[in-house]
Batch of 2 targets.
Target 1
Amino acid sequence: MNVTVETTPTSDAAFHVQVDWASIEKESEKVYKRLAQTQKIPGFRPGHAPRAMVERLYGRNYLYEAAIETLVEAAIDTAAIEQQLTLLQRPHVHVHDLSEGQEQDVTVTVPVLTRGELADYHDIREAQEAVTVADEDIDRVIDNARERMADWVPANRAAALGDRVTVDLKLVVGDKTISDLKDHEFTLVEDRTGLFIGMDQEIVGMSEDETKEFTTTLAADYAKEEMAGQPANYTVTLTKVEVKELPAVDEDFLKKVGPYDTEELMREDVRKDLTLSRTNTALRQLKDKLIADLIERLTLPVPQVLIEAETEDILQDMQNMLSRERIDLDRYLQLMGKNADEYRQELQPEAIRRIKQRRALELLAEREGMEVTPQEIQEVIDAYNQTSPASKRMRLNQLRPSQRLSIERSLLRDKAQDWMMQHLTDGTASVTMESDAAATLAVLGAEAEGTPA
């Protein structure tokens, strides 16, 4: 079987396949046996109908045409791997003029992602951002921990921003009651949005057991158009005002977050963890800059069909992430004021960037002579098998060519990124270190800023 490939500027590839008759005859026997086994043929048990009977039911040419389609599809898959072409659709093979006993010439055009061209990249130089941790940063982390461990105590005064209040609340828009809440508890904030916009400022200054009627105006761009810009009429009775009381940084506090013997030891661990966190962030940013520089040196036409497929992958990732938080994608988009088509359009530049990133890294790996060993592939399979049920475990010798290629490309991209970090930086890039005090951040939290809601 002989295969030649011609690529076009429009990201299509024409596969010209010559199939010898001996291969067709051999494959047609497999087609016959499959039909005899799986199809109901009157008068015969499954698998026992003679070929002449099957040919009579389906047509003699059908067996040969199905055999040619199978052989051609397999030849195209192999040729695409050899030519480093990514098929964007399954090839559709149609045999029209069958000449029995003769070699068959079949041409199939398939949209593909071509190799692309990567210009020289050895002049790229990027530096890792310097990592510093100030005393104020440590104070902020500790203060955030104090905020989370704070108690709410009676304020014994009028309500103020930042207080936690308990209210009976009735909200009417037009002639419709939107909310009728009893003993509803929330924190007063300055910049509330959505349905209750402007409410907090009206409650500020109220005292316990006080009832107040007031009117706010819903935002002109409120999600429900029939309510947008309308007056919102409130009746609020304030039943409780509480203020947050932060714990002192004392022996009891140190015991809960550590335990630590002294405040100095706690601050030392916080500094260590912040340094690690910021170093990792700086390394990710450095890697992103290097990849952006590499993509600028790549010439690669990206077919729309691939952009759309990558966009759907990103959208699916988003949906999976939201579902873990029990958030519906449609509801999320509604809150953002967008529909699915608009969001897909916004995602397309990121889809193109991801496609180009993969190809640029693969071309760099090829140019630098990087290879993937069977042992490295086996390690990937072992990691997969450790988290998979027995029925889905894989073996190296059972991988389909496309599966093996996918693993190899992924490993090559990882190696290319490591190479860039070693050779295209100014030599200041740090090695990511393991945290000896990971438990500290679990208690004190990451370097979040501001007061929790």
Target 2
Amino acid sequence: MAKGDDALARKRSRVRRKRMRSSENAVSARVAGIIASKRRRKSGKRRGCEGMCFSLPTPEDPFNDIHAKKRKEKDGAEYDRPSKFLVVCLNAIRDAAASEDGGGGGIHDTGSWGVELWNCCSAAPPTDVLDTSGLCATREQTAWLVSTACDIVARKEKLGVVVSCPFLLYLVPSQENAVQVRSICKPLKSLGIHSVSLHPGASIEHQMSGLKSCEPEFLISTPERLLELVALKAIDISGVSMLVIDGLKCFMDLNAGDKLCSIRDAILSSPQITIFSDPSDRSVAALATKLLHGRKIRRLCTNDSVTSRSAFVTQKIHICPRKDQKAPKVKQILEQILTNHAKKTAKVLLVAASNHEAQHLSSSLKLQNCTVTDDSHDNSFTICSSVGLINVLVKDWESMTATNFEDFDTVLVADLPPSVDEYTDVLTGASRHVVVGEVHCIFSSADAPLAKPLSQVLTSCGQVVPEFLRKLASS
């Protein structure tokens, strides 16, 4: 029976490999790599990365996978580090700012914040971001954000994915902000990224004609003008992939909260959302929660101030005069947390003074009319009642350094630490994945030396200082 072309090709390949392995015909690794590269180029199977690599392929790594460090493609775009194109975008913005006003030098200084933002936006699925560094985004933050969007667009296009336009929708409260953001995005035009700003400063007819002649990847707009153009069907925002709300407090001062919700509802996809908000105004937390649809978020901040890093975290101080009353007080607070929790399911971190105190609390917390399931190995238990479900993890201050408590939206400090700095570490480290969090503290007579510094922390964060704590701090 005659052999097919595939079988003959496989036979020729076996003979060729055998000839290459033979000692009398063996060549050096460098020459073998050059031959392999030439053969792939002639057969039309040359890798896209081959021309950009500084090392030649080898028989052990004929496609330069080791040097190219292939990224994983799983359920969308997921990468291990920013690409060189992102750095090119940042440098273009920096050079343009330096030529105009001598600025732009601080773009790379915010690199740690930018990489965290890139990780959130490039994850699969992407994570929403809430930044509480200040009232609005700085020029450096905007540069990192638009460069991250450029990087994602470039990667998608390289994979053959059709990118909907606009890809990024950047909402600003005023015309001045729109012009500022547009000036940051302008240097990206030479890199193939077009941006358009929409604001009341120009006629709507002019903007409609401009949108017809251009399909921008980035759209910077005020809410009012955007809704007007959407109503006239001059722009379609249903496929937006990234949504930025710059200055949530400013939008609330302009009574534009409903307009933001209308824009969010007009986006039919599930965009990655980044919100910049003032940390001192707690009234914006409800609007942020509504815009984010209660999804898991990531809190970011460019500074280390307690006020910024603990934004929208409520601090409540409970007095307990005697030590033997502490366990009943903890029971009462847990019942209150369970009753007030919106989802009727809560995850609470309970912090005790020592391991002995932690075990004592775990064994003594038996709520009335509740079913408590204990796990003595991990000092954790679950409370099931008619009200809801609460999972409690008990830790002591010594083991807190090795505990990841970012996922806990509620922390109950049964025993205050010797220094208020340890308390602020918990305050700024908890509730990193929710908009609103809570920290409860039980204050006893032994904690009197901490009254003044604790009052200062509460005041700086805009929290209510109880009368008993104010009297102790002033005495």
